[in-house]
Amino acid sequence: MTLGALEAGGTKMVCALGDETGKIFEQTSIPTTKPEETLSACMDYFKDKNIEALGIACFGPVDLNRQSSTYGYITTTPKPGWANVDVVGAAKKALGVPVGFDTDVNGSLLGEVTYGDAKGLTDAVYFTIGTGVGAGIISGGNLVHGMMHPEAGHMLLTPREDDAYKGHCPFHRNCFEGFAAGPAVEERWGAKGVELADRDEVWDLEAYYIAQAMVNCIMILSPQRIILGGGIMHQEQLFPLIRKKTTEMLKGYIKAAELEDMDSYIVPASLNDDQGIMGCLKLALDELSR
Amino acid sequence: MTLGALEAGGTKMVCALGDETGKIFEQTSIPTTKPEETLSACMDYFKDKNIEALGIACFGPVDLNRQSSTYGYITTTPKPGWANVDVVGAAKKALGVPVGFDTDVNGSLLGEVTYGDAKGLTDAVYFTIGTGVGAGIISGGNLVHGMMHPEAGHMLLTPREDDAYKGHCPFHRNCFEGFAAGPAVEERWGAKGVELADRDEVWDLEAYYIAQAMVNCIMILSPQRIILGGGIMHQEQLFPLIRKKTTEMLKGYIKAAELEDMDSYIVPASLNDDQGIMGCLKLALDELSR
Question: Of A76, A154, A223, which is closest to B146 when you measure between CB atoms?
Answer without folding.
Answer: A223
